[in-house]
UniProtKB/TrEMBL annotation:
Pfam families: ECH_1
Official protein name in the record: Enoyl-CoA hydratase domain-containing protein 3, mitochondrial
Function: May play a role in fatty acid biosynthesis and insulin sensitivity.
SUPFAM superfamilies: ClpP/crotonase (SSF52096)
Keyword flag Metal-binding: no
Keyword Transcription regulation (UniProt): no
Lineage top rank: taxon: Bacteria
Keywords for the protein's UniProt record, in alphabetical order: Fatty acid metabolism, Lipid metabolism, Lyase, Transit peptide
GO MF assignments: enoyl-CoA hydratase activity
Length: 271
């Protein structure tokens, strides 16, 4: 089933469901899937729709064309320099909207697997880094090139700092160089590197594997993992322990443990 998130001749984001997996596809290949105000609004709408859909247990985020996303639409940004305030209000608005979308990816109850078939630069790299898993093409490259145009990639740095070691993040941010998929995998930004034709099928297979598990366990786990990352060690263990208790009290935990003891396959109720 395919649903268009925005009712226009060329929807910025497409949705297609494969069982319990929603495939969201950025659909502005001519502009290299830049994160314009329209694209951000469409992606936010798509994420909100998926978050409320109890039948969806995992998400694949893909893109049409040779680029996953080239980041912010610099033509749109430049046009607003003619505003009375020099673009200040627009710049603040677009940064806020982009930050909200990135946080929505992280906060989405369902895990998100990025299928990166081409370049992911600046805020496009930020989007990939915000996903829970990343499958990249052998031809994909990642970059935060803001320093090349006098604009340090500060907001992409937020996602990078949470995805890769500090030195790797700073190298990308300070040098602005293209990072091949293999190197991105070594630094921890990418989980798997595949031939171009295998990127989307691999991302879908991973999402389907996730979707085959108990939704309550996976969703509690994602939320708890993200929450504890920002905590000191003792607080992190306390928070994770509380998540474990909540999970143990769920019906699916009783079913899963019972099935393991009885040596049978569990039957998830997703509650």
């Amino acid at each position: 089933m395919e649903r268009h998130i925005m009712h226009e001749n060329a929807p910025p984001v497409l949705r297609r469901d494969e069982g319990a997996v929603a495939i969201l596809t950025l659909n502005r290949p001519a502009s290299r899937n830049s994160l314009s105000t329209g694209m951000l609004a469409a992606l936010q709408a798509a994420l909100d729709e998926v978050a409320a859909d109890r039948d969806i247990r995992a998400v694949v985020l893909a893109a049409e064309g040779p680029a996953f996303s080239a980041g912010h639409d610099l033509k749109e940004v430049t046009a607003h320099r003619a505003d009375a305030d020099g673009g200040a209000a627009f710049f603040a608005g677009i940064m806020a909207a982009c930050g909200t979308v990135m946080q929505a990816v992280v906060a989405l109850p369902q895990p998100v697997v990025a299928a990166v078939q081409g370049i992911a630069t600046a805020a496009g790299c930020q989007l990939a880094a915000s996903c829970d898993l990343v499958v990249a093409s052998t031809t994909a490259k990642f970059c935060t090139p803001g320093v090349d145009i006098g604009l340090f990639c500060s907001t992409p740095g937020v996602a990078l700092a949470r995805a890769v070691p500090r030195k790797s993040a700073m190298e990308m941010l300070l040098l602005g160089e293209m990072i091949p998929a293999g190197e991105a995998q070594r630094m921890g930004l990418v989980n798997r590197v595949m031939p171009p034709e295998a990127v989307l099928p691999t991302a879908l297979a991973l999402a389907q594997q996730i979707a085959s598990r108990s939704a309550v366990a996976v969703q509690l786990g994602k939320r708890g993992f993200n929450a504890q990352q920002a905590m000191p060690l003792a607080e992190a263990y306390a928070a994770a322990g509380a998540v474990m208790v909540e999970n143990l009290l769920a019906e699916d935990a009783a079913e899963g443990i019972g099935a393991f003891v009885a040596k049978r396959r569990p039957e998830w109720q997703h509650r």
